[in-house]
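Batch job 17 of 40 flagged for manual review because the log was empty.
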Amino acid sequence: EYGYGYEAMVKFLEERRGFCQQFAATMAMMARVVGIPSRIVVGFLKPERLDSDSDSVFTTDNYHSWPELYFEGVGWVRFEPTPGVGASLPTYAPRPGSDSEKDPRSTEPTESAPDTFGPTLEPEFSGAPTTTDAAPADAGSGGSPPSRRWLVVLAAGVLLALPGLVRQGVRSRRRNHPGDPVAAAEAAWLELRDSMVDLRLPWTGSMTPRARERDVSKFLRGDRESLSALNRLTLSVEQARYANSLSPDSHPGDDVKVVVTSLARSSDKGHRLGALMLPASLLSDLRAELTRRRESWATRRVRSAV
């Protein structure tokens, strides 16, 4: 039994197996960690049709949940992270051959269930697609309409690209941190940490900025430009933490860009591709957020019991 709540999500991340609830909740939580509004929809998959065209049978096998993310100017967009569940045409998209087409820019939320279904019990958590039996096509249709196939391809592409796009947004925001220079230095330091994690380089334990500089410099392979940038970044962080100020000529966002570029250049292609497509720092941030919320929840329970 996987259960519900933060404990279930932690177990899901550790064992990499779960039900649709864990897939949906984890994706929604990942989106919120990086500032994307999200919600979880609970509904039904397509039911089994009886002999009569107007009657259907819903069972517990039809229960399903999926996440929706909110994008400015677009509205709530439905995603299907659970393997084995076929993609379907959302209600906000025009169906092929339909006389009336809804405005694709509509921000009205949709709670309609997917049109297709597949096994959701304990699917493997992997990027490999899960094959399900396709519903028989109408006579003479020649299979699914091209627009629907392209919609499925587009949805799969968005899901594959989402982690990298989210990470790129976080990276850009940190490097171009507006306002407080002290906060900009800390943001650049966080970007260095996450970039190391993404490239599968060690960032463990608690170190002073100076000790961390010595540790990171080992991976720069004597590159003078990046070593100088790392030193300037370290000085900026020290000034921010211990003097609560920054010298006017400090540019931590530019410095961290130079350092990270050098780290990526010295890493192997597999790690660079992993950092681009499936950045590990997003999962680390999610684990940290889940741990924080779980501890907060446990503290509230203890206090309420006293």
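Reviewer: the log was empty due to a logging misconfiguration, but the result itself is present. The radius of gyration is 24 Å. Unflagging and moving on to job 18.
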